[in-house]
Design brief:
Blueprint: E1 4-8, H1 12-22, E2 27-32, H2 59-73, E3 81-91, H3 100-103, E4 110-111, E5 121-132, H4 134-147, E6 151-154, H5 160-164, E7 169-172, H6 178-181, E8 188-197, E9 205-208, E10 213-217, E11 222-225, E12 229-230, H7 239-252, E13 261-279, E14 285-291, H8 295-311
Parallel strand pairs: 1-2, 1-7, 2-6, 3-9, 7-14
Antiparallel strand pairs: 3-5, 4-5, 8-11, 8-12, 8-13, 9-10, 10-11, 13-14
Helix pairs in contact: 1-4, 1-8, 2-8
The chain binds flavin-adenine dinucleotide.
Flavin-adenine dinucleotide is lined by residues 8-14, 31-34, 39-41, 43-47, 156-157, 173-177, 181, 192, 194, 225-226, 267, 269-270, 289, 291-297.
Length: 319
């Protein structure tokens, strides 16, 4: 395939794909109908964690590759990426799906002594993971891409084949937009609502997948999440749900109750049983969408996989 590539979508999937391609001497144009901050990627928490990777055998490489990219990019403080402790708590009587441990980079994950866990937790693990402050990283990455010669165009793409006729390769990174663009009924929205309180929460990221509760300390806010609402396609928050989030989080960290509430948002995770990462047969179109609740965690790994698909004529099997 030639070197002229159109990446459709300017979320984390599109931007990371553009980054990997431009670094490999491709001439990249990003076409999107919306850009940061008006996209799902801005609504992510967004810490690196192998959540929703399940048993997709390709996932282990993707999460490891992304981790390495975030590590390299974090060298520039302006990127908004930091490495931060995460504590995953498991309550008494809960059988935890511990497959995520196998995805953690070597020697970064250890068990937390029970006396150091918040009240009510029977087991816990800690690790250091990348925290990507979306409000900083997405504009930063756009600037980096612009400096490298990537062109940004605003347009609503309704037909991938038409775009494909003007480029050597088209990479479809449209997230939830792919359900319409590709008529993909297996892709659906999973709404996540979060509450924002004033910054300054001193602890690490805290995660309890079962309640589900996560607390993420960013520079501009402490995120208190979250909900996981399958097939809910509206990006709105509900006051009662936000109140419940605060109650759940305050049960773990009572000091959160004293914090000033400064905002909230809802985002729609583009969920698919398996990420669609494949090249269409006899075509110059590559798909990279359906990352669910793990778009940041998978991002640069999937982008590298796109590079391989462009560079090799055979299509990778898509489970
Ligand atoms: C509350 C919440 C918390 C989350 N926390 C985490 C986390 O901690 N860690 C993590 O890894 N992930 C997390 N996620 C998941 C993550 O946000 C998503 O997986 C990720 O943002 C998906 O990125 P994307 O680039 O594929 O899609 P999007 O960000 O939705 O971007 C899609 C792009 O395609 C464009 N587009 C769509 N259709 C068209 C079209 N027809 N023509 C032109 N352009 C089009 C859009 O305008 C946009 O630019 C979270 C999500 C939510 C909602």
């Amino acid at each position: 395939m030639g070197k002229k590539v159109a990446v459709i979508g300017a979320g984390i999937s599109g931007l990371s794909t553009a980054y990997v391609l431009v670094n490999n001497d491709f001439e990249v144009t990003i076409i999107a109908k919306a850009f940061s901050p008006n996209i799902t990627s801005n609504k992510a928490a967004a810490f690196w964690f192998p959540y929703h990777v399940r048993s997709d055998a390709r996932g282990i490489n993707w999460v490891e590759t992304s981790y390495q990219y975030f590590k390299d990019l974090s060298a520039d403080e302006a990127s908004g990426i930091s490495f931060i402790k995460i504590v995953k708590g498991i309550k008494e009587g809960i059988i935890d799906d511990d497959r995520w441990i196998a995805f953690m980079p070597e020697n970064t994950c250890k068990e937390v002594p029970i006396e150091q866990l918040p009240k009510g937790y029977a087991q816990g693990f800690e690790a250091k993971v990348p925290l990507v402050e979306t409000q900083l990283f997405l504009p930063y990455l756009q600037q980096v891409l612009t400096a490298k010669g990537v062109v940004f165009k605003e347009a609503n793409v309704t037909n991938l084949q038409i775009v494909a006729s003007s480029y050597d390769t088209v990479v479809n990174c449209t997230g939830l937009g792919a359900s319409q663009l590709c008529n993909d009924a297996s892709l659906f929205a999973v709404r996540g609502q979060v509450l924002l309180v004033e910054p300054g929460f001193p602890n690490a990221i805290f995660l309890d997948n079962h309640t589900p509760t996560y607390i993420v300390p960013r520079q501009d806010a402490t995120i208190i999440g979250g909900t996981y609402e399958e097939h809910v396609n509206v990006e709105t928050t509900e006051p009662e749900t936000l109140q419940q989030l605060l109650v759940k989080a305050s049960n773990v960290f009572p000091e959160l109750q004293e914090k000033r509430i400064i905002g909230n948002w809802a985002g729609l995770r583009p969920f698919r049983e398996a990420v669609r990462l494949e090249k269409e047969v006899n075509s110059n179109i590559i798909h990279n969408y359906g990352h669910g609740g793990s778009g940041f965690t998978l991002s640069f790994g999937c982008a590298e996989a796109v590079l391989q698909l462009i560079s090799t004529p055979n299509t990778a099997p898509n489970p």
